[in-house]
From TrEMBL:
It comes from Rhizophagus irregularis. GO terms for molecular function: nucleic acid binding. It comes from the Eukaryota. This is Restriction endonuclease type IV Mrr domain-containing protein. It is found in: Mitochondrion.
């Protein structure tokens, strides 16, 4: 291949000897073609790497999965990729919110998700039926205020008064992010899911949520650690009229919601 390229260069140089000598000279012309050839090789290699990365992303998107359990069953996939880890944390958040707070949501994902990772509903014992949209941040550092502003943009763009925005961060939130969250006019909830979706480290809503959450409050439950009996772990739980909400209530509400959806 190289012989063909440089034989072509030689013929071009001879055919245009006069003009190239007067302007750039044959040596400069050969060098420019060599540089062009090297640039072309670099571009092709870059495209190959991008294609390889996109194929890894497509495997996550194309594999059939609808919840945490089905996602964990996927084989022949790079579990160290950022796409896999991000999707896994989304499913962990969805599972944890349903188990602990009765929030029924499903993953959105894809290129046309409008900045939403999951969405669904929350039927509360005070009669409120809220809509939910959420974003998940699988960061190694604490979530910055820019993530709060991003969620505010999503929620305000929906123009629905009873839609709550949920921001889930595996590594917690920076002081600046918490201040932004508290001052927001959008109803927002901050949550931190840990232990592969088994536990919720924190669950807090801002002042804009309070008019919808009459009779509800979050308190802290202390339980023995799975690692050591002498260590107590903190975990947020939801109360209604000063009493913990029984898991059976969420199960009943969710079953009724599913039956309603089927009859539509």
């Amino acid at each position: 291949m190289n012989k063909k390229i440089f034989s072509s260069i030689k013929s071009l140089t001879l055919a245009n000897k006069g003009s190239f000598e007067n302007n750039f000279g044959p040596r400069n012309f050969i060098l420019s073609v060599r540089q062009y050839y090297l640039l072309d090789l670099i571009k092709r290699h870059h495209k190959f790497l991008l294609k390889k990365q996109n194929l890894s992303c497509e495997k996550v998107h194309k594999k059939e999965h609808k919840d945490l359990e089905s996602f964990l069953l996927i084989k022949d996939i790079n579990t160290e990729s950022s796409v896999y880890k991000g999707t896994l944390y989304e499913y962990e958040t969805i599972s944890c919110l349903q188990k602990n707070f009765g929030m029924i949501t499903s993953r959105v994902g894809g290129a046309s998700d409008s900045g939403i990772d999951f969405r669904g509903g929350w039927n509360l014992p005070n009669g409120q039926k809220l809509k939910l949209v959420g974003q998940c941040k699988n960061y190694s550092n604490k979530c910055p205020p820019s993530s709060v502003r991003e969620l505010e943009g999503v929620v305000s763009g929906l123009k629905s008064e009873n839609t709550f925005g949920i921001l889930s961060s595996k590594s917690g939130f920076s002081h600046e992010a918490i201040n932004r969250f508290k001052a927001s006019v959008c109803p927002l909830i901050m949550v931190s899911v840990i232990n592969n979706g088994e536990k919720c480290k924190s669950f807090v809503w801002n002042k804009s949520c309070e008019k919808f959450l009459d009779g509800l409050e979050v308190t802290t439950k202390f339980s023995k650690s799975d690692v050591c009996d002498n260590i107590l772990e903190r975990e947020p739980i939801l109360l209604y009229n000063d009493k913990p909400i029984n898991e059976k209530y969420w199960d009943t509400e969710n079953s009724n919601e599913e039956e309603t959806e089927k009859t539509k």
